Amino acid sequence: MDEPFAESNGVSSSAIEDMPPNLKALSLFVSDVDFNPSQSRFMELKEKCNDCQVCWETFLTSNSLKTHPRNYTSEELYNCAVCNKGFSQKGNLISHLRIHEKQKPYSCEICGKAFTQNGNLRKHFIIHTGEKPYACEVCGMAFNQTYKLRMHLRVHTTEKPYACEICDKTFNSKSSLRSHLWTHTNEKPYTCEICSKAFLRRPELQRHLRVHTKEKPFACDICSKAFTERPHLKTHLRIHTKEKPYTCEICGNMFSAKGSLEDHSRIHTKEKPYACEICDKTYRLRSSLKSHLRTHTKEKPYACEICSKAFSEKQNLKRHLRIHTSEKPYACEICDKAFNFKNSLKYHLQIHPKEEL
């Protein structure tokens, strides 16, 4: 194998090691150049490299190299006529203008989603391929985008570079800080176009939309019951596994969901945090307040599919359906007579002498 041309023409190994990456590669792998030390051909090639003296990135043209330093100087030669945002490169301004013009010329051939920049389309395409080329060197967890890996690394470093100027709380991502700031301003920037309900975060709006679309993308593999959110499916699965990881420290009662434990704890604390704004009546459970509010609004959202009779509570509809199904789940232990309502059984038991009970 031939010697690299730089070494064969008097350039030492130590000198090569000290070279910037682009020039080092040139010296090591270009072996068919007729090098003449007296003509300084090697230095001539170096000058033709169009390499940045700060980061040693190499450019194909001298014009590209000329505009590149603006990345370091923050020089903004091109300003948006709409919002006055400044850019160092003309191409970046052109891409930015598509935001105002709602122009998205780059479309995904698989799902049709469109983007303002070709680079964003390339990043999006990885979602379909399932490729996760960016792996964490600490735990091995892989990601499909570099920014996700960068944010993940802060889990290991516990770095939180974004601080709230109001309360000094810190966050590991800019988006988390932005969402937090809205808690101070009471701003809810994400609004449902169907019912106008507003949300603090985009994922909250996306989850809410399933109320309108009736979409339930998370299905149980055991009983096929579907849910709008993944955490709800996770909680549901504990019905099958009989897992109850949440224990009451006062009475030892166990629960499959953290929320159920919190609701139960109020039995001990007598806390009733849910208050009616109309009559000031308070409740231990949010669902109880929700049911109570219907006494003011006269809303009856639960309708019988057989006779169309409507009810304010789901439980009342469930009891009503027994009239149509002739189901009688409440049986007398003395005479085996059955009833479709618990109160009916209670009334029936009065017929039997006390000694029979």
Automatic annotation (TrEMBL):
Gene3D superfamilies linked: Classic Zinc Finger
Superkingdom of origin: Eukaryota
Entry's Gene Ontology cellular component terms: nucleus
Compartment(s) of residence: Nucleus
Keywords of the record, alphabetical order, are: DNA-binding, Isopeptide bond, Metal-binding, Nucleus, Repeat, Transcription, Transcription regulation, Ubl conjugation, Zinc, Zinc-finger
GO molecular function, a single term: zinc ion binding
Q: Matching SMART domains, A to Z?
A: ZnF_C2H2 (SM00355)
Do the record's keywords include Ribosomal protein? no
Q: Which InterPro entries match?
A: Znf_C2H2_sf, Znf_C2H2_type
- Which residue range or ranges hold the C2H2-type domain? 50-77, 78-105, 106-133, 134-161, 162-189, 190-217, 218-245, 246-273, 274-301, 302-329, 330-357
Its family remark reads:
Belongs to the krueppel C2H2-type zinc-finger protein family.
Q: Under which name does UniProt file this protein?
A: C2H2-type domain-containing protein
Q: Which organism is it from?
A: Larinioides sclopetarius
